[in-house]
Every structure is written in structure tokens, then in C-alpha cells.
Amino acid sequence: MLLKNDYVMIDSDINTDDLDKLRDKYKYYVPRRLRSNECNDKIQVMLYDNVKRIAGRQAFITEVINDIRTKSERKSVSDKKKLPVAYFSASHISGRKKNENVTKHSGLIICDIDIDDNPGTDFIQLKKDICNDKYIYACFNSPRGGIKTVVLTNIKSKELHASYFKSVKQYFLNKYHLTEIDPSGCNIARACYLPYDNHCYFNPNSFRYSLHDDEIKETIANIKINKQLKSLSKSIHNIAAISYEEHYDNIVNLLKKRTEIGIYGNIFNNYRYYNIERGVMDTSVPFLELIILKHSYPSKLDWETRLDEYYFKDNPQKQVNILNIGCSEGLEICKVGLSKNYKIKEHFRAITLGSISMKLIFNNPFCHPSKLISEVIRINDYFCEDPHPLTNPKPDDEEVRQVVLRNYNAFLSGELDFNTVIKRKTKTNEISRKFVFKSKQYSPIERSITHLEAVRTYHDGKRNMNMEKFEQAISVLQDGKRINQKRIADYMSVSTRTVRRYLTDDFNAVIKKYNTNLKLVRTTGK
User: Fold this and answer.
1) pTM for the complete prediction?
2) How far apart are alpha carbons 436 and 440 in whole angstroms?
3) 152 bridge partner residues
4) For a disulfide at 271, which of 91, 166, 281, 325, Cβ 3.0-4.6 Å?
């Protein structure tokens, strides 16, 4: 007879192995209510071994998701910059990882929800709630502990990326009561570090997040309004009074963001500021601190784009080699063109001062905001006409301060668009660029000869760089499609005429061999 507290183990007919198989089978099950009739598992995104790599490849989204679920070795990577990165919004990038080099949008929008930006949020519950949203295409943990969400949209043009991102961002903020979402997602060429998350959610049948034309226009209008509202916040006003240490931290964070997501490449490059890439990636290099200290409080602000003379500090006779600067197309330039007798007209004062402040930021990116404000106030006092001081007075110092700080805050956020102030060619409206081949202190003796030598040194480097890029193109384009001059030209972002200039016998032999083998495989099926 069994007593009350006695227990007896009995045999069970349940096969636990079958249960484990059943659990594995439905581990990534997506409920029917979250699935549309459209399957989108063939989307391609750009994949790179790490954020520093220039050469990447197109990969199907299923490969990216499978690697997130299975690559457990990523857990032991302490430096996230060593993790592979995907550019979810870009199906193809030609050349460097910049917004303008994205040739095809994938239709995907990624949002990064950071723990630091959303204090008090239960991220475990948040992820469960997000994975029950019909618009969620993918969701996985961030290397820093937050959550990354991917949404499939009906976006047709990469020019509309910012509008779609703002709309998706607002959707998440409102529905899940979040405080902030990383604004860097507004960039198409936005790197996403790929972690290990064996519970990564993936729903290729998710519903598309769609915007109609009227909604797009409304979103664009709201973006402009929000930017104006930001200029009224207390934090923006206080930024003019920050210490040098705080200013230094702001610039370092901006430079790190520039490296990770590819913004402001026309400002911070090795052409304008020698060795800056090394300084950004390794803050122990004293050069970065030196250049910020040097340019924070200049005695005179640059009104036009210049080369930092630090490049020539050891030898003014040194010539610029393009291999050392990574800027083959030359410098994009801005110029504050105010002559002595020029007057800013009454009805254009605010917009002109805003444009001038953007040009000064472009030409003096390391400058403390207080110096920028002082310069624009001086320009307002000297150049702005004031024909009706009683009925329509010109902007006072506080109004000028707000104009400058609105642009400077957008600059630190990575959202300031300099396209409206970059110098352009009159007839074609193409961006006007200039080349600097030598120091201002370069010896004027035999001027024509020394200039010719400097130009030759510059273009020798350009040729060597393009030859390396040509070799890289041939390697990357061996993707099961025939290689021709047009594909190589698209990859290099040059004309087919330029491709023919670099098409050596060795390159031609490699291309011919690959195309012959490809044809043989297609013919024989082997």
C-alpha cells in the first residue's frame, strides 16, 4: 500500500525525441494571421565581412537570416567592428558605401531600438510584441543589447527612403510607446552589424508597409516641421555654451557615425584632412585630438573649402598622391561669396543666413558652434539690409543664433543636407569640384614645371587606384553572369570608355576564360 507522500516512476509511451523534432520544426513558426499571400524571400542585400571592407557582395536575405541564427561564434566577438555587416536597404552599392552609390533599393527599412534611448522599457516583452506585428519582416537582437527590426515597404525610389523611414519610425514610436529610435536609419547606406541570435524572427510573407503619394507628401512636410520644432528645444540652445571637452566628444561621435553609416564623406576624407580615417578608427592616435583642438577656435573662419596644411607639415614640397587620400573625384566645395558692397535683400535674410551657416559648417566642420554663431551675427550686422526697422526689422542676435544652431544640431545628428549649398556648374548643374595638388607653400620657382609634376603625381596614383578597382570588379562580378564592359563600368561608376583604357591583356584573358567556362557550364549543364 502506497502512502500519501510516496511516488512511483511509471513507464511512458511518449517519445521525447519526437517532441524535440516537433519543437525544432515549429521553432520559427509564423501564425497565419501575420502572413500575406506574397512571399518575398528572394530579396538581395549588400553583405560585407566587416564595416571597414570596401568590397562587398550581394546576398539573399535568407542567407543573412540563417547566419544570424546559426553563427554562434559571433557571441565571442568583443569588438562589434569585427562582425559582418549588412546594408538592408541597399540591393546594390557601386563602389564605396555611400548613399549616392546605392544603385538599387531593396524595399527594406531597418530600425534600431537602443536600450540607452528607451530607459524603463521591457525589451523581452517588446520583442515578443514586435514579432506579433504583421509588418515585421525580420527582428533580432542588437550586439549592444537592443533590438533591430526590418520592415518590407512598397518604396519605388531610393529618393523616398527618408520619408519611408520617418513614417516607419513614427509607427513604432506610437504603437510601442518608445522614446527614441536611432535616426541613422534615414541613410540608405546604413551599416547593420550582424550578431548571433538563434531566436531571430523572419517572416518573408509579412505585409508590406505601404505609403500613397499623399502620405509621402505629408511625411515630407512633417519632417520639415519637426526640424523647425527641434530648433526650439533647450538642448539645442545650450549647445552653444558647451565646453571644449563636450565639443570634442560630439565631434568624435560624429566621426564614428560617419565611418559606420557613410555620411559626410565629402567633408571628412583623407584629402581634406590627412590621415583622418586612422584617427577616427583609433582615437588613441594624437592626430585626431590635434586637429580638433587646432580647428575648434580658429582666429579666422574659412569662407571657402580648403585643404588642411597638416598634410604638408614635414615637407611643403611634398606632392599629393591620390592613393593616400582616397578622393579620386576631387573636393566638393562651398564658398561664402560676399563682396564688400554686397547686401542681403530684406525678404531673403533668413534663408540666406541659413545657407551661409551651412557653408561655414561645411568649410569649418571642427569649429565650436559659438564661433560659427559669432561669424553669422557679424555677417548679419554688416551685410543684411534693414530698410524698414520698425515694421520689418532684420533678424536680431537671438534669431540668428537659432538659425545657426538649428543647422548645427542637424549636422551633429547626421541629417544636414549640404546639396543645396555645394557649388555647381552653371550649364549642367553638376557638382563642381576642385583638385589640390600641392601645398600653399609649394615653391613658385619654375611654376609651370612644378605644377605639371604635381598633376602627374596625382594622376599616377589615380591610375593605380583604378587598376586595383578594375581587378576587384572582375573578381566580384564572377557571379554566374557574363562579364562585359558595361557591368564593369557600372561597378566602377565610370564610363565604358574609361574601362577600355584600363583593359590590359591580362585582365582581358581572365574575363575571356571566365566567360568561356560559364558558356560551357550552361551548354553542358556541368
Assistant:
1) 0.47
2) 9
3) 108
4) 325
